[in-house]
Structure formats: C-alpha cells, structure tokens
Amino acid sequence: MKTLLSFFFLGIISLTINFSQKLSDAALELTKDKVTYDPSYVSIKYPNGDVPKDKGVCTDVVIRAYRKLGVDLQKEVHEDMKKNFSLYPKKWGLKKTDTNIDHRRVPNLEVFFERKGEKLTVTNNPSDYKTGDIVTWMIGDKLPHIGIVTHKKSADGKRNLIVHNVGGGQVLEDCLFSYTIVGHFRYDK
C-alpha cells in the first residue's frame, strides 16, 4: 500500500512538473511573435476566440500560452463567471458576463485562478516562484499586470524570468520584482 501511494504521489508531481514546463515552453514560444500592445475592446468568437495574433496585452500572453496546451481560458472564465458572477470584480459596471473581454482582465483572472487553481503566498524570495506559476502585479498602484514564470534564469541565476507584455510586446524579462506583486497562482490542467 505504501508503495502504491508513493507511485500515486510521484505521478501527480510528475504531471504538475510536466504541465508547468509545457506552460513555460508555450510562453517562451510566444516571444517569437511580433505583437503590438493594444488594449482595444475587440469582438471575438466564442469559444476559442482571440484578438488578432499581432495584437494583445498582458492577459493575452497567459491566454495564448494556456491555449497552446488545450486550455481555453475564455471559456473557462466565462463559465465560472456565469455561475458565480457575484464573486468577480464589478470595476467595469457590467451586469452580466462578456465573452469578448472577461478573460482579458487581470482582476478576473486573479479570481478565477484563486477559485479553480491554487493561490500561493506572495513573498520576496525568488525561489518561491516556480516554473509555470502565474504572477500578478500592480504597476504604479493603478495598473494590474500578469505574467508567466518560466524555467529560464536571470543573468545572476537567482530569479526565474517572466514572459509578459507590459507595452513592448510578448517578451522574456527579469522583472519578477520590478513591480509590486499582488498575486501568485498555479493553475495546472
């Protein structure tokens, strides 16, 4: 029985590591695409909708990386918001869900990842941020931001690099502690 449990837990750990590595790889792949930062509201198909490939914001990095792994955050966020609308932020004055934009808002993703994934501790210790983790920041106390922790390391080897889009396209940067971290999540499928 003890051996069987060991195999079970090793299998779960292996799946998590495997998914996290794949998410990191998917995020890194996105940095090869030339993307202009464009926060415009765009009508998109549902499910599996996306803004034009050459446009996007920080949330589109996360959405596109998960989509490369077969996870449609547009659909998943929408379905959770439909069932639990009162739990999501009301910053935009919406009275109902909107499949074009709900998944493209950092505060909505924070609620979703906390509800459906794992909310992790926010720390100042770089080793707490693992490959495949999702980090959210508040830039200048007013702009929510989100990115994906990759397996690539900073020049000094102390921090994992982040794939994000804060205005310069989908890039890989050493920016984990460049902004105020407000959220730390893991969402493995």
Structural notes for this entry:
This protein is α+β, with helices and mostly antiparallel strands and 189 residues long. The chain has 4 helices and 8 strands; from the N terminus they run H-E-E-H-H-H-E-E-E-E-E-E. The chain has helices at 2-30, 58-68, 73-83, 106-116; strands spanning 36-37, 55-56, 118-119, 134-139, 143-153, 160-164, 171-173, 180-186. A 6-stranded antiparallel β-sheet has the order 3-8-4-5-6-7. It has a two-stranded parallel ribbon with strand order 1-2. A hairpin with a 3-residue loop joins strand 4 (134-139) and strand 5 (143-153). Helix 1 (2-30) packs across helix 2 (58-68). The two termini are 27 Å apart.
Question: What is this structure, in a nutshell?
Answer:
33% of the residues lie in helices and 20% in strands. With 189 residues, the chain is an alpha+beta fold.
Throw out a few tags for this protein:
single chain; 189 residues; alpha+beta; six-stranded antiparallel beta sheet; two-stranded parallel ribbon; 4 helices; 8 strands; 33% helix; 20% strand
